[in-house]
Specification:
Order of helices and strands: EHEEHHEHEEHEHEHHHHEHEEHEEHEEH
Shape: globular
Strand content: 15-25%
Radius of gyration: 25 Å
Helix content: 25-40%
Length: 444
């Protein structure tokens, strides 16, 4: 059976998420900002067309943004994460074998669908995702992951292809023609450092790389690079990862919306980050054996005193208990906190990650209390999932949170917060009076 794989990639994902609930923004330039509304991290095609730069500080682009009437949004990770889940869930309807590669990309194994017209099947997938989620996607189909990436790159940029490009049945001569037009820096897995190295050695295109000697590639680009070359030759060498490997560590950290100088504010922030990190632990059925807390001032403010530090604690028994990890995190924080500094950032890192059920219990551990705490954590997670994050939270995470990240242009959490559900306006011509229908009422 011929190996056929597709890469489904959401188009301008963050901007598309905003458009789902504001369709009037279709065709308008949009940019998304990073934490604390610092830099531009995502742009719609229209924003790119008017010259809005990527990863530039927002304040340096204000004049250009105002000139072209660009719509600006703070990052809304709750919305983007939920929309990603909906897209991936939709894609899973079209093949039993798939890999979620990133928040907006997934590989789909289509070997069992070779009897179909794969271009038409790709269009069916794309149209279904658009209809069910509102998110437009592009699909590249080929015999290897790396070639599927290249096909997807072309599908995104060609209007004639309607977002789907199948090169799985192309002859070697046709594939070579595509590779000759593909810059070596655009190849999946070739980072900036390798790109510069390859171009210094007169390797400018994917075709050039495909025809390099194996020994030279292994020596200079390691075995991983050799796998990429094999894939360019049409030899599947990078397997589909249907089971996501466990995290080696989980980091929860944010820059503060304004400088923080008190221990109390830092404790609130660290407790908040610990809560988020442990939720991620439990979602993956993982436990952590090591807790690290770190704090830092703003290194860009040279006129202010600088300080950064971290503290690590190793647990006798790995845990996913939020209260236990908050307690340890606060103890770590008190050991490194110093007065007289304006702190810009704090965070927590959970490491020594182990899969639940595969850990060695301590001789002195109490299975009764561990089981009771696990049940409590699961109940809290279930309530927060249904009614929105922080419906139930630890008091140590604070209430006002004056330190929290600045997101002054954030859109509502349309799909994850009951209080921010979109409101449908009824057509006044068809109904007597002007009525607003809540989405919750429409679902009854």
């Amino acid at each position: 059976m011929k190996h056929i794989i597709a890469l489904a990639d959401c188009n301008n994902f963050y901007a598309s998420c905003e458009r789902v609930f504001k369709p009037e923004l279709e065709g308008k330039p949009i940019v998304i900002l990073s934490n604390n509304d610092g830099c531009i991290i995502a742009r719609s095609n229209e924003a790119k067309a008017v010259g809005i730069p990527f990863r530039k500080p927002f304040f340096k682009c204000r004049e250009l943004i105002e000139k072209h009437q660009v719509f600006v949004f703070s990052s809304n990770y709750e919305l983007y994460g939920d929309m990603s889940f909906r897209v991936m869930d939709t894609l899973s309807q079209f093949t039993p074998d798939y890999e979620i590669y990133s928040i907006d990309e997934a590989f789909l194994l289509l070997s069992g669908f070779a009897h179909k017209n794969l271009t038409e099947y790709g269009k069916e997938i794309s149209e279904t995702v658009k209809q069910w989620t509102g998110i437009p996607i592009s699909i590249g189909i080929a015999t290897t992951k790396t070639l599927a990436k290249i096909a997807n790159h072309i599908a995104k940029r060609s209007v004639k292809l309607n977002g789907v490009y199948d090169i799985s049945k192309f002859s070697e001569a046709e594939i070579n023609a595509i590779l000759k037009e593909t810059d070596v820096g655009k190849i999946w897995g070739i980072g900036g450092r390798y790109e510069k190295f390859l171009k210094r050695n007169q390797i400018y295109t994917a075709f050039d790389l495909k025809n390099c000697r194996d020994n030279w590639i292994r020596k200079n680009l390691t075995v991983v690079g050799l796998k990429t070359v094999f894939e360019l030759r049409g030899i599947p060498s990078i397997e589909l990862e249907q089971i996501t490997p466990p995290n080696k560590q989980i980091v929860s950290s944010r820059s503060f919306g304004k400088p923080v100088s008190t221990l109390q504010d830092l404790e609130e922030a660290v407790a908040t980050y610990a809560s988020r990190a442990t939720v991620r632990l439990r979602k993956q059925n993982l436990l952590s054996a090591t807790v690290t807390v770190f704090i830092a001032t703003n290194r860009f403010k040279k006129d202010e005193p600088q300080y950064s530090n971290s503290q690590t604690f190793e647990l006798a028994q790995p845990t996913d208990d939020t209260s236990a990890i908050i307690k340890i995190a606060h103890s770590n924080l008190r050991k490194i906190f110093k007065k007289g500094f304006n702190y810009r950032k704090a965070g927590i890192m959970l490491s020594g990650i182990q899969v639940e059920g595969e850990t060695q219990l301590s001789l002195f551990s109490s299975e009764y209390f561990r089981s009771r705490n696990q049940k409590l954590m699961k109940k809290i997670d279930k309530i927060n999932k249904k009614w929105g994050s922080d419906t139930i939270r630890y008091a140590s995470t604070g209430y006002k949170k004056n330190w929290k990240m600045k997101r002054e242009m954030k859109s509502p959490s349309y799909t994850t917060n009951w209080n921010e559900l979109p409101v449908a306006k009824a057509n006044s011509k068809k109904m007597n009076g002007n009525h607003n229908l809540c989405a919750e009422d429409l679902l009854k």
